[in-house]
Amino acid sequence: MHILKYGLLIAALSSGSAAAADSQSALADANFDQRWSWSGFNVGVIAGYGTQSDEQVPPGGGTPVATAEGDGDVYGAFIGYSHQVGNFVAGIEGSFQKYDTTFQDGSGVTIEDMWSVTARLGYAIDRFHGYAFVGGAMGNTTAPIPQLVGRDIGLVYGAGLDVAITNNLYAGVQYQHHDFDDFADLPVGVDINASMNTYTFRLGYKF
Questions:
Q1: Which residues does residue 201 pair with via DSSP β-bridges, in sequence order?
Q2: Alpha helices, H only, the chain
């Protein structure tokens, strides 16, 4: 009789332990399935603020003979692809940014828009993703004087941080720096070396 009771007790305990183990395993699997992955195609929109400056130097270099600055709003869109291996995330991104920034030196030169393609490398911890990037950019200007209207290709680099909101939606902040040497080789008797700093909020969707 005692043996039967002990047998029933052991069977009950074993059944309970197995059920608990199965429950913990299922919970672990569910948590694993809920982990965010940054791999995939993504698209989004951009909005923020930009500052710009230039130095007008004699051809070939030397002491600047004049400088100019400006600032204004920035907005645009981006599309890209990322692939995550472990905690590391690599990707490529193309973006278009429309600027409402005018140099405040009376020239009337306005940064019209900026196209860029960048390579990105980042580190992700679940739903947080910090990254740096570098690439090429093409900038366009408008001005009341035709000689100051130009287009040039320069360098862009920066860093950002994205945070997942839902399984597909994420938001982030980003800093960009653009550099242009002798912008568009404009026929104005000096080399115009221009740079821009852009601070933006980003809202993206990952497929």
A1: 47, 173
A2: 2-34
Q: Return the half-sphere exposure (C-beta side, CA atoms, 13 A cut-off) of residue 47.
A: 4
Q: Encoding tokens for residue 60?
A: 């070939």
In the numeric block, the tokens 């002990």 are attached to: 6
The upper half-sphere exposure of residue 50, i.e. CA atoms within 13 Å in the direction of its Cβ, equals: 27
Amino acid letter, residue 93: E
Contacts of 193 (CB under 8 A, 6+ apart): 54, 55, 57, 179, 180, 181, 182, 183
DSSP assignment of 137-185 equals EEEEEE-SSGGG--EEEEEEEEEEEEEESSSSEEEEEEEEEEEESSGGG
Quick check: helix, strand or coil at residue 180? strand
Tell me the pLDDT tens digit for each residue of 28-74: 444 434 478 999 999 999 999 999 999 999 987 788 888 999 999 99
Smallest CA-to-CA distance from 183 within 128, 114, 126 is with 114
**Structure tokens of 193?**
């070396």
Closest residue by Cα to residue 49 from 201, 151, 199, 206: 199
Give this prediction's pTM: 0.80
Query: Amino acid identity of 21?
Result: A
Alpha-carbon separation of residue 201 from 30, 57, 93, 153, 193 (angstroms): 32, 34, 16, 24, 27
Q: What are phi and psi of 140, to 5 degrees?
A: -125, 140
